[in-house]
Amino acid sequence: MAPYFLRNLVPRREEGKHSRPLLTVIASVTWLQWAQFFCGWLAWTCDAIDFFSVSLSVTHLQDQFNKSTHDITTAITLTLLFRPLGAVLFGIVSDRYGRKWPLVCNLVLVAVLELGAGFVHNFKQFLALRSLFGVGMGGIWGLAASTALENLPVELRGVGSGFLQEGYAVGYLIAAVINLYLVPEVKSGWRALFWTASGISLFTAFLRALLPESEYFLRAKEADRAKGANTSKKTKIFLHEVKEMLKRHWLLCIYAVLLMTGFNFLSHGSQDLYPTYLQQSKGFSAHNATVATIIGNLGAIAGGVVAGFVSQYIGRRLTIIIMVLLIGAFIPLWILPSSFSALSAGAFCIQFGVQGAWGVIPIQLAELSPPAFRATFPGVAYQLGNMVSSASAQIETVGGQNLKTTIIKEGNPTVVPDYAKVQGIFIGVVAAFVVLITIVGPEKHGSHFEQHKAAFEQGAAEDDIPEKDLPSGAPDAKESFHQIE
């Protein structure tokens, strides 16, 4: 008999029998559901703009603070290291009190810290602000994903997941365009990128404040109010359910962190040092490196949307595996050519695979999560994976210091770091790990998690959703990680 994780690699045929046609589902979505999805998407886009402000400004920051590439990438590492703290804090508050105001506060905090980063005068101040910034950024993903996906019909969540995750690539694109056209034209230089990012985050916070709380939480609060539960009692129940959830799902927690470690190494390893790789190892100008980055992120957007859609039909894990195998196939095109056109094509194809695989992650983690903890569990797993992978840029920098190549620069042979070889080896190893960890993992394709109790209700730590609350023909939502044979 085949192992459980292989038998369950493709969704069972009966899971799709009662699904409505995609166009019918899209037509049924209300303007409020679209608005909440857009707010979640925009919040995640802001996170990417804010994060990649440093990656795109490495050269400018080196000149500003008179530091090496390795020193500047310390700011990236510190941001990633502190993100799990933000995921825990904002995730718990969101699962306990709701999606709306925790996300608004989170975005305001990010806006203030990003604004401050544009006013620093020395490197120590910059590192301190980026460390605090990591706390603010850490909360965004879990809150954005739960806000965007839990209000959509179950048949639309795969597509929604792909669009949501590619807010990350869109954020990279926006930051790159600002860096390309605004930064060179203003006296403030690189600081203008940080200030613009701050304004976009503040606008998103304002937009979310205008919209109501998630219907899922409004329904749960109304039911709890009818039972006469007070705030102190709900908090006590919440803390008890968190403890029970950890006791029941500790193995799932470990798996999710391992999965997200691989995914974060995959994305950060292929993106954080990419502009530097093109400039130093391939001799591109800063302008051409930015344009190649934009082309790569167009591939990312296409990959995420396609993979999210496909995952609704062939399953989450199988889609991830196919996308990661595409990454391996295109590594040579990503690192071997020297021309702008060929390397740009390689960037497009690699990011199609990387962000295609990532496009499935929001819904995969939402469906795997203990249903009542869909802000905390995915957010913490994602950011712990971020923390483990936080040294990606520095690992590649050290690799470049030890692996050298020679290029012709201004007519003369010049010895430079061989970031092409370093990134090719790095991404190849990480891709193999991601395929393995995905194959052995669980999947709850089509889970109706929106029917579950909220985290402040008695019994929230249980996986079971009463059958009377499930739509007719819905897949069994009771499967869990401990059922793997």
From TrEMBL:
Record has Amino-acid biosynthesis as a keyword: no
Gene3D superfamilies membership: MFS general substrate transporter like domains (1.20.1250.20)
Keyword presence, Transferase: no
PROSITE patterns: MFS
A GO molecular function held by the record: secondary active monocarboxylate transmembrane transporter activity
TM spans (from-to): 21-44, 72-94, 101-121, 127-146, 167-184, 190-211, 250-269, 289-311, 318-336, 422-441
Matching InterPro entries: MFS_dom, MFS_sugar_transport-like, MFS_trans_sf
Recorded GO CC terms: plasma membrane
Domain Major facilitator superfamily (MFS) profile: 36-445
Skewed-composition ranges (Basic and acidic residues): 476-485
Keywords, in A-Z order: Membrane, Transmembrane, Transmembrane helix
Protein location: Membrane
A Pfam family that the UniProt record links to this protein: Sugar_tr
SUPFAM superfamilies xrefs: MFS general substrate transporter
Superkingdom of origin organism: Eukaryota
GO biological process: plasma membrane lactate transport
Region Disordered, residue ranges: 457-485
PANTHER family reported for this sequence: CARBOXYLIC ACID TRANSPORTER PROTEIN HOMOLOG
Protein name, as recorded: Major facilitator superfamily (MFS) profile domain-containing protein
